[in-house]
Specification:
9 strands, 385 residues, globular
Length: 385
């Protein structure tokens, strides 16, 4: 016979399984989409057939946290190195701006081949499986791809004490202008994921000359409000499986480039004690970016505070079960309905953070097709108008 503790444990597990099945069976797979009162963005999203498709998550990890965790692990397990061709540009500050290209000989100054620029998440680079999936999707449809590699990430060096952060727009701006000068007839789209989405969004807000050159921007699993994101990530299991893991990666980055970063006046003891993302931002990022406080940085970098100032057609894709971009921080349909900036938000009930897997091994990336669809429709709208 089972004792009382075993009975309660079995009851608890059965209750969880019941709730899991109810959520799977009765939560819509279809996304909701809403936008501002902008005619261009309204026209573009009407042409996006992928917005009408259901997202069928990998059944055994369909909820947010399992999707985020297992898709990350399994993508890395099945990943194969992608054969990019590297281009290095001299930065205005003496640093190096790095682009990993996926293109063929058909890309020339006069070809008009469309180009997508990709930006990865906070601890990844151009070889991140979800970035490669996006690159493959666009390449399969005759786009060239240029993956922006953050300073100091992967095998790149850090020559100056500036790497990357959510409001850092200089390197992406330089890349866009470089591509426009080199390929003057090519449409340009930008796809940013997570932190890369914040950099992309802030560039479309702050840099009008860059936004004019971009026919479409797509931001995927972007944290909208850093204050809300931090509050969620510091609770319960999210603190241990997400926040702590990222904090460890960020500390390793600082230690790896200490010879350069110490010039900012960093205190090693403060970095040693970092256990939260916000603590790293306080110890390192605000000194790198010149902010007086983390609160000033989060207010300046938080996309939710700048939705009225977007200057290029932008699509934000989020999942309602994303611990990094909690629904409470995402602008509502009512908020957007009062604005005229070219912004649309596509929200799925499932997907987690940069999850959106559908296959049995949770290693594909459904959203790549959606990002391509929006970029292609925006391209048609821009160059056929």
């Amino acid at each position: 016979m089972l004792d009382i503790s075993q009975e309660m444990g079995a009851y608890f597990i059965l209750t969880l399984l019941f709730c899991y099945l109810v959520k799977i069976l009765f939560t819509s797979r279809y996304p909701s989409v809403y936008c501002t009162k902008n005619e261009d963005i309204s026209h573009i999203i009407r042409g996006c057939e992928s917005f009408a498709l259901p997202y069928e998550p990998t059944f055994w990890c369909c909820l947010g946290r399992p999707m985020t965790l297992f898709s990350t692990v399994l993508r890395e397990y099945f990943a194969q190195e992608f054969p990019y061709k590297r281009e290095s540009l001299p930065g205005a500050d003496g640093g190096t701006v790095t682009i990993d290209w996926a293109a063929d000989d058909s890309l020339t100054a006069d070809s008009g081949t469309p180009i997508v620029i990709t930006l990865s998440g906070i601890t990844n680079g151009s070889q991140a499986p979800y970035v490669v999936d996006i690159v493959r999707q666009f390449r399969a449809n005759n786009w060239a791809a240029a993956a922006y590699v953050y300073r100091g990430m992967g095998d790149t060096s850090l020559k100056t004490p500036v790497s990357y952060y959510a409001s850092y727009t200089s390197d992406l701006s330089q890349i866009v202008h470089h591509i426009r000068a080199k390929y003057p007839k090519s449409p340009i789209a930008v796809v940013g994921i997570s932190m890369g989405g914040m950099i992309t969004f802030n560039t479309m807000v702050r840099c009008e000359a860059v936004a004019r050159e971009v026919c479409a921007a797509v931001v995927i699993s972007m944290p909208w409000n850093p204050f809300v994101s931090c509050e969620q990530l510091y609770q319960g299991i999210d603190y241990w499986i997400f926040n702590r893991a990222i904090a460890v990666h960020l500390k390793e980055f600082a230690y790896r480039h200490w010879d350069t970063l110490h010039k900012l006046g960093l205190v090693a003891a403060e970095i040693d004690e970092v256990t939260r993302i916000k603590e790293f931002d306080r110890a390192v990022v605000i000194k790198m970016a010149g902010y007086q406080s983390v609160e000033e940085y989060y207010t300046d970098a938080g996309p939710a505070f700048h939705v009225a100032s977007v200057k290029a057609p932008t699509l934000a894709i989020n999942a309602n079960d994303d611990s990094f971009s909690y629904p409470a921080g995402i602008p509502t349909e009512e908020e957007l309905s009062r604005l005229k900036s070219p912004l649309a938000i596509l929200r799925y009930n499932f997907g987690g953070h940069v999850g959106f897997a559908t296959n049995l091994t949770a290693s594909d990336f459904f959203i790549s097709k959606v990002a391509y669809d929006f970029a292609q429709q925006a391209r048609f709208h821009r160059y056929s108008s």
